[in-house]
């Protein structure tokens, strides 16, 4: 099974921003795991999923008031 690692830059500044992102992430059954690096200047969101969904995630975050930009998408089959 292919897995995708998606790296996004986000606008997380407050706990409310993070909660908005968590709620959007929970709406995707394909997301297997995720982390947020708030120490990074770009507030990096890293997702592991069963399909490529970067742009769809960005769009859904936008409708919930969040902002994100896809920086990179890796297919783990390519990394093997």
Supply the CATH architecture. 2-Layer Sandwich
- Give me the number of helical elements: 3
Give the terminus-to-terminus CA distance.
12 Å
**Biggest sheet layout:** 4 strands, antiparallel
Provide the succession of SSEs.
EHEEHEH
Strands, count: 4
Label the overall shape.
globular
Strand content: 35-45%
Radius of gyration, rounded? Answer: 12 Å
Mean pLDDT over the residues: 91
- The helix/strand class is alpha+beta
Describe the secondary structure blueprint for this structure.
Blueprint: E1 4-10, H1 15-26, E2 31-37, E3 44-49, H2 54-63, E4 68-75, H3 76-79
Antiparallel strand pairs: 1-3, 1-4, 2-3
Provide an overview of this structure.
The chain is α+β, with helices and mostly antiparallel strands. The chain has a single domain (4-79), classed as Alpha-Beta Plaits. 32% of the residues lie in helices and 35% in strands. It contains three helices and four strands; from the N terminus they run E-H-E-E-H-E-H. It has helices at residues 15-26, 54-63, 76-79, and strands spanning 4-10, 31-37, 44-49, 68-75. A four-stranded antiparallel beta sheet has the order 2-3-1-4. It is globular and about 35 Å long. The chain starts with a strand and ends with a helix. 18% of the residues are buried.
Question: Brief overview, please?
Answer:
This is AsnC-like helix-turn-helix protein. It comes from Pedobacter duraquae. 32% of the residues lie in helices and 35% in strands.
